[in-house]
């Protein structure tokens, strides 16, 4: 148990830093005076945020960095508390909640007045300062008393890149993932992931193909069609003698990219990467059938993100209706880590009226740590309805959320959260959240792995400094837990949403029970 901590004399400023996408982004820098037991010291923290790559009106809106830096000084610094007293981990969350709520009230709709980048840089570095000043670890923040087990996330290692990330590709699917699903530790997951990555590279060299990587460090090479990358993942697994239960495959389709221009908001799509700009348009139904073929391409295909466009909730619902019992469906561009979308998209009682069974979580889309936290807790069925209502009201979103919930037969925020909880949906944490030398993103899976096994993480391939700063903290945390007698558990197949049955697992027959022998 950490000692009582008093944190005061906060200073806060913004600074421009380079991002890994060859651009400039914002870094929040904070100092504070800390009194912890007999210790007295100054703490300095910084957190770089990802450059907004999809800063539309439905998510936190970034403003020019120079304006954001001025906004921090003018608008957000005055909101800092005079002091924070930390006696238990929940005190950190309470202080962050109060600070973030004040930001939400002043920053304008989607923070476009003060800047989503100014808000996020300030919010995250404030939480980080309190956490590190207190002496608590991220995995202790929500840990129940006497915690015996901790759930580490299933990790999506990016192996093949296509779509918008790869000019000239013949692959409409943006990312293809490999998951290690039969390891007893998170370090074991990384051992298999790195071995797989090296074998994949060897195969490309064998075939005379380039071994360069894209933004997420997955491989970029000429493909024949949309399925070659999936076939190569299966080939690599066979070479490493991995059975179908030992690994899984998944994709981030990013299909907003094939409903551009005049197609946006319609029920039409164009497979423009694999078939060229003159490709014929296809219907929404045709697209979902294509998604189904991808899902059925492997008995251990486990997760699909963005099976339709950000403008097409009907397409997501059709995917959910047709394949929701077969695969985890992750909504990203459609929900953009915003409570006002997550609630109506997941709260319906019937699967055909839901847009998926998982939500991609990105700090840079929500705009503050607490709003991100609430999005996670809604998805995992852990949210306090009153706190959700408090932030929805502050954002001016309450009425529209209630109206949208009514359309799917849900009468209140409490009922919506209860419905979502009953379906055991999953939170999929994404690296499109932190930047520079930041290790903020791992706080999220480390916090929620203490209370749920429905956690997943994607932070790119197991290479590249930006990716490793998100992965290595998990290895360190696992060592700390083992020293304290806490058993690490990788979520694996049990981390799927309720009702999702993967053939590689569900088709395995249990051995017949032995008949009792009755002695005469």
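Sequence proposed for the structure above (520 residues):
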């Amino acid at each position: 148990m950490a000692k009582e901590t008093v944190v005061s004399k906060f200073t806060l400023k913004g600074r421009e830093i380079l991002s890994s996408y060859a651009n400039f982004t914002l870094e929040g820098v904070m100092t504070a005076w800390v009194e912890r037991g007999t210790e007295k010291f100054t703490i300095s923290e910084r957190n770089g945020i990802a450059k907004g790559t999809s800063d539309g009106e439905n998510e936190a809106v970034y403003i020019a960095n120079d304006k954001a830096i001025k906004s921090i000084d003018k608008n957000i610094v005055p909101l800092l508390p005079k002091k924070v007293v930390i006696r238990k981990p929940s005190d950190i969350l309470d202080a962050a909640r109060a600070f973030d709520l004040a930001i939400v009230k002043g920053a304008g709709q989607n923070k476009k007045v003060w800047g989503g980048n100014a808000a996020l840089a300030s919010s995250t570095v404030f939480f980080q300062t309190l956490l590190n000043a207190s002496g608590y670890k991220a995995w202790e923040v929500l840990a129940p008393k006497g915690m015996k087990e901790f759930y580490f996330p299933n990790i999506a290692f990016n192996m093949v890149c296509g779509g918008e990330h790869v000019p000239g590709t013949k692959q409409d699917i943006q990312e293809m993932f490999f998951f290690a699903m039969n390891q007893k530790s998170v370090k074991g997951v990384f051992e298999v992931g790195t071995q797989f990555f090296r074998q994949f590279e060897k195969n490309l060299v064998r075939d005379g193909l380039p071994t360069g990587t894209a933004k997420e460090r997955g491989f970029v090479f000429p493909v024949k069609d949309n399925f070659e990358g999936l076939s190569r993942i299966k080939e690599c697994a066979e070479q490493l003698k991995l059975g179908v239960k030992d690994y899984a495959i998944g994709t981030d389709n990013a299909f907003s990219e094939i409903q551009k221009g005049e197609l946006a908001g319609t029920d039409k799509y164009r497979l423009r990467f694999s078939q060229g700009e003159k490709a014929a348009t296809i219907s929404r139904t045709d697209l979902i059938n294509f998604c189904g073929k991808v899902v059925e391409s492997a008995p251990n295909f486990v997760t699909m993100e963005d099976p339709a466009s950000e403008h097409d909730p009907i397409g997501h619902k059709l995917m959910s209706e047709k394949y929701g019992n077969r695969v985890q469906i992750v909504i990203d561009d459609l929900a953009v880590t915003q409570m006002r979308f997550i609630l109506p998209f997941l709260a319906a009682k019937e699967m055909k009226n839901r847009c998926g069974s998982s939500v991609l979580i990105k700090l840079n889309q929500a705009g503050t740590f607490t709003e991100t936290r609430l999005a996670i807790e809604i998805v995992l069925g852990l949210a306090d309805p009153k706190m959700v209502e408090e932030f929805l009201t502050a954002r001016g979103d309450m009425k529209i959320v209630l109206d949208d919930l009514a359309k799917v037969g849900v009468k209140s925020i409490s009922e919506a959260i209860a419905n979502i909880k009953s379906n055991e949906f999953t939170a999929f944490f994404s690296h499109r959240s932190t930047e520079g030398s930041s290790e903020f993103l791992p706080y999220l899976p480390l916090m929620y792995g203490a209370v749920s096994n429905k956690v997943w993480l994607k932070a790119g391939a197991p290479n590249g400094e930006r990716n490793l700063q998100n992965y290595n903290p998990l290895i360190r945390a696992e060592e700390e837990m083992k020293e304290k007698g806490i058993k690490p558990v990788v979520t694996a197949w049990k981390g799927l949403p309720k009702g999702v049955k993967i053939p590689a697992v569900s088709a395995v027959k249990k051995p017949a029970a032995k008949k009792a022998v009755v002695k005469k």
